[in-house]
Amino acid sequence: MDAPRDSRDEAPAGARQLRRVRDAASARVGLAILREAAAWAAASGIAVWEPAELREAEFEAAAAAGELILGFEGASPAATMLLQSADAVYWPEAEPGSALYVHKVAVRRASAGRGWLPRLIEFAAQEAHQRAIPFLRLDTVHRPKMQAMYEDLGFRVLAEEPMTMYGRRIIRLERRA
Ligand SMILES: CC(C)(COP(=O)(O)OP(=O)(O)OC[C@H]1O[C@@H](n2cnc3c(N)ncnc32)[C@H](O)[C@@H]1OP(=O)(O)O)[C@@H](O)C(=O)NCCC(=O)NCCS
């Protein structure tokens, strides 16, 4: 399922593609996208991630575990997410194998507004299909705009009180893969 490691340089200029990356350098690329996105959001008064949630060692481990996805425009990294098989923090009660969990979604500002969010979710859905996993799940800070973006992609908010994490109100969403 993985693209060959060296396929990045074969993409025609401007071609958009997503793939799993496993090496430490790619983990740092993903982290840089997330940090840029977090700084951009913070400048608009939107707190997305705490520094403690963006640690290099954890990203290197996630990449090595096959959880890190990068999106490229030609050879340039444009977007990222973590795609995980379990989420003990936000979905501790979930049945094993019932979902893929989408985390740490971000797009570089230079690539914003180009459809990366639906592309990332479609990648997750395709992988879930391939693995016969029925649901996609994610959590996000309770904000109308972010909620609406995910609802437009077929997610529904769980009917429950938002939970509090790092002082933020977090909602959980899921959709059929
Ligand atoms: C969420 C994201 C991947 C969407 O990328 P995109 O589809 O290219 O869309 P844009 O970046 O152009 O953002 C679309 C709108 O959502 C808003 N938005 C982005 N992140 C937001 C957030 N976390 N909370 C509320 N609004 C947000 C933007 O301000 C923009 O608003 P506008 O339409 O009034 O200009 C990207 O905005 C991003 O990286 N955001 C910061 C990180 C983040 O919030 N990740 C999701 C965590 S669940």
Short description:
The chain has helices spanning 24-43, 56-64, 116-130, 144-152; strands spanning 16-20, 68-73, 76-84, 99-107, 135-141, 156-157, 163-165, 168-176. With 177 residues, the chain is of the alpha+beta class.
Could you explain how this protein is built, in words?
With 177 residues, the chain is α+β, with helices and mostly antiparallel strands. The longest helix has 20 residues, at 24-43. Strands 1, 2, 3, 4, 5, 6, 7 and 8 form an 8-stranded mixed beta sheet that branches. The model is unreliable at 1-11 (pLDDT under 50). The protein has helices at 24-43, 56-64, 116-130, 144-152, and strands at residues 16-20, 68-73, 76-84, 99-107, 135-141, 156-157, 163-165, 168-176. The chain starts with 15 loop residues before the first strand and ends with a strand. α3 (116-130) links the parallel β4 and β5 (135-141). α1 (24-43) packs across α2. It contains 4 helices and 8 strands; from the N terminus they run βααβββαβαβββ. Coenzyme A is lined by residues 37, 41, 46, 48, 105-107, 112-113, 116-117, 140, 143, 145-146.
List the SSEs and their pairings.
Layout: E1 16-20, H1 24-43, H2 56-64, E2 68-73, E3 76-84, E4 99-107, H3 116-130, E5 135-141, H4 144-152, E6 156-157, E7 163-165, E8 168-176
Parallel strand pairs: 4-5
Antiparallel strand pairs: 1-2, 2-3, 3-4, 5-8, 6-8, 7-8
The chain binds coenzyme A.
